[in-house]
From TrEMBL:
<protein>
    <submittedName>
        <fullName>RND transporter</fullName>
    </submittedName>
</protein>
<dbReference type="InterPro" id="IPR003423">
    <property type="entry name" value="OMP_efflux"/>
</dbReference>
<keyword id="KW-1134">Transmembrane beta strand</keyword>
<dbReference type="Pfam" id="PF02321">
    <property type="entry name" value="OEP"/>
</dbReference>
<comment type="similarity">
    <text>Belongs to the outer membrane factor (OMF) (TC 1.B.17) family.</text>
</comment>
<keyword id="KW-0449">Lipoprotein</keyword>
<keyword id="KW-0564">Palmitate</keyword>
<dbReference type="GO" id="GO:0015562">
    <property type="term" value="F:efflux transmembrane transporter activity"/>
</dbReference>
<keyword id="KW-0472">Membrane</keyword>
<feature type="signal peptide">
    <location>
        <begin position="1"/>
        <end position="27"/>
    </location>
</feature>
<keyword id="KW-0812">Transmembrane</keyword>
<dbReference type="GO" id="GO:0005886">
    <property type="term" value="C:plasma membrane"/>
</dbReference>
<keyword id="KW-0732">Signal</keyword>
<dbReference type="InterPro" id="IPR010131">
    <property type="entry name" value="MdtP/NodT-like"/>
</dbReference>
């Protein structure tokens, strides 16, 4: 009868294990909600052409090889980009941790303990009675105190019956993709910032050249007015006015030199190196803007721009976190098997008959900590909503930046054309005023005004030229260019 009962007991245990394993294979998943789409305009400026400069490589868009080399150096040495790579490493490690949670943990265990059982305890009475049996002798007798030695393997395995662990793995993988998009975002921003500072340096170089040319003209004007003063044709006031104008122009030169030094230092910091001269190519007046600049379609922007892609990944991960928080309310099933050598005498531990094995399976459901789980769920929902609004804001910002830079290219081109005409007229006016001043038909104030107007107009033209290139760079960055 006893063997029959033992056989039935083993059958029940085997059936229970099969039931637990069948639960682990169930695909009872809390499916995360899909990312809500953001409404996009059909086009940026009425054009439905899908061609975009965002798909061009930096070597194709920027024809100045000095600029291309600077960008390559920044991508190799920039500290922010290196930190972004480490964030990717952290995300990869987190993903590996989430993958490991799906597998059983196995630990090698060497344990020793001792218990002294009281006379009127179940173990005390039971061990005493067992030792009186005729079948118990020698090493089989149970001592008191009773040692307990174990050498083997212990495991713990939470079976993912609700998809909680798989969703955590999915969220970790999604955040890994988001960190990679964050790295691409830094590459795009870094490319644009290096180009911006480079064109700023070219513009400052052109301003410095214009100031020097005007300074030379004004120096000759001071010499001329001194000659006329000696001849009695003008007063000391005229000499003072011309001299003051020359000093003002020389002070402009000092300001521009300082701005050049600051721009070079900022650029060197992006390149990950200490201050040193920056090699420049053609002047900004000789640099060419592409004749045709296309922005493509807003739908392409969502697929190409790294910050939008990163925000979308973060939103997807936040939605998955909600599914994980929902699964936390359900029971968790854990198996804890073990196998090894177990004995109460150290001399018998390595005996083959000391081999022991077992498994325990248990369901644990939260009861008294549901308030904590509800709070965690509420936090996950709020973070998901926040991520959606961040995604929406990023899309709106991207479209706005594209439209602004597209308009800037057109408007600054028109401004530059008018300013070139203005500079030509003012240069002729300055020449005329000098000639009239020599023969006495113009006052020195008219000459000073004409010279100042030429200087201001030439500097304004350079600033407009710089704004054109910055709009081109801004459009390239806004379209997600430069990260491939």
């Amino acid at each position: 009868m006893v063997p029959y009962l033992n056989k039935r007991k083993h059958i029940y245990r085997f059936g229970f294990l099969l039931f637990l394993l069948s639960l682990s294979s169930c695909q009872i998943l809390h499916t995360p909600q899909k990312t809500q789409a953001v409404q996009l305009p059909i086009s940026f400026s009425g054009s439905t052409d899908s061609t975009t400069i965002g798909s061009l490589s930096r070597q194709t868009l920027f024809t100045d090889q000095n600029l291309v080399r600077l960008i390559d150096t920044a991508l190799a040495q920039n500290p922010d980009l290196r930190m972004a790579m480490q964030r990717i490493e952290v995300a990869q490690a987190t993903y590996q941790i989430s993958r490991g949670a799906l597998l059983p943990s196995v630990n090698a265990v060497a344990a020793a303990g001792v218990d002294r059982y009281g006379k009127y305890t179940m173990n005390g009475v039971g061990n005493y009675d067992t030792n009186l049996s005729e079948n118990i002798a020698g090493q089989s007798r149970i001592p008191n105190p009773t040692p307990d030695y174990f050498l083997g393997l212990r495991s713990s395995w939470e079976l993912d019956i609700w998809g909680k662990l798989r969703n955590r793995r999915r969220a970790a993988y999604t955040r890994l993709l988001a960190s990679q998009e964050g790295r691409n975002l830094i590459v795009t921003a870094l490319t644009g910032e290096v180009a911006r500072l480079y064109y700023t340096l070219l513009a400052l170089d052109a301003e410095l050249e214009i100031i020097r040319e005007n300074e030379a003209l004004q120096r000759r004007a001071v010499e001329l007015v001194n000659v006329q003063k000696a001849a009695g044709r003008v007063t000391e006031l005229a000499v003072q006015q011309f001299t003051a104008q020359l000093l003002n122009t020389r002070s402009l030169e000092g300001r521009v030199r300082q701005e050049i030094a600051e721009a070079e230092n900022q650029l060197n910091a992006l390149l990950g190196r200490y201050p040193q001269p920056i090699v420049r190519g053609q002047s900004i007046e000789d640099q060419k803007i592409p004749a045709l600049v296309m922005a493509g379609l807003p739908a392409q922007l969502v697929r190409r721009r790294p910050d939008i892609r990163q925000a979308e990944r973060e939103l997807e991960a936040a939605n998955i976190d909600i599914a994980v928080a929902q699964a936390e309310f359900l029971p968790s099933l854990t198996l804890t098997p073990y196998v090894g050598l177990n004995a109460f005498r150290l001399s018998s531990l390595l005996n083959p008959v000391s081999i022991a094995a077992g498994v325990v399976g248990g369901l644990a459901a939260p009861i008294f900590n549901r308030r904590l789980l509800k709070g965690n769920y509420a936090v996950s929902v709020a973070r998901s909503r926040e991520a959606y609004f961040a995604y929406q804001k990023t899309v709106l910002t991207g479209v706005s930046e594209v439209v602004s830079n597209l308009k800037g290219l057109d408007n600054y081109q028109n401004v530059a054309d008018l300013q070139r005409q203005e500079v030509a007229v003012l240069r002729q006016a300055a020449t005329t005023s000098n000639e009239l001043f020599v023969v006495g038909y113009a006052t020195y104030l008219e000459v000073i005004t004409a010279q100042r107007s030429v200087l201001d107009a030439e500097l304004a033209l350079i600033e407009t030229k710089r704004a054109q290139f910055l709009s081109l760079v801004g459009l390239y960055r806004a379209l997600g260019g430069g990260w491939q």
